[in-house]
Amino acid sequence: MMTNETGNTEFWESNFIEKQEMWGFEPSNSAVVTKDFFVGKSVKNILIPGIGYGRNAKVFTDQGIVVTGIEIFPLFLIKCEKRKI
Predict the structure, then answer these.
(1) In this model, does residue 4 exceed pLDDT 90?
(2) What angle do CA 56, 43, 26 make, to 5 degrees?
(3) Contact in structure between 61 and 67 (CB atoms under 8 Å)
(4) Residue pair 65/45 in contact by the 8 Å Cβ criterion
């Protein structure tokens, strides 16, 4: 678990531990709009910094776009892997 300079658990990690999939599983509206734009421009690969548990990645992978995600919290990545994203 990551801590900040005062030794406190980082905000997002502690919230994730308590609330798990706090944003649900549906992609955000901005991800859907971006997906449409990327498909229209024939984008093949994207990077999602702060991929979290992958809720915004699936909308791209469903369109055949290769997603590379980065995340500083290992717990988020475990959820991503379990969802096969």
Answers:
(1) no
(2) 15
(3) yes
(4) yes
For the entire predicted model, the pTM comes to: 0.66
Q: Which helix (H) or strand (E) holds 70?
A: strand 66-70
Measured CA to CA in angstroms, residue 20 lies from 37, 48, 52, 57, 72 at distances of 30, 20, 11, 17, 16
Q: Where are the alpha helices (DSSP H) in 1-84?
A: 11-19, 29-40, 58-61, 74-82
In the chain, the amino acid numbered 52 is G
Number of residues that make up the chain = 85
Could you read off the pLDDT of 24-68 as tens digits, one per residue? 778 899 999 999 999 999 999 999 998 888 889 989 999 999 999
Which tokens go with 14?
């502690």
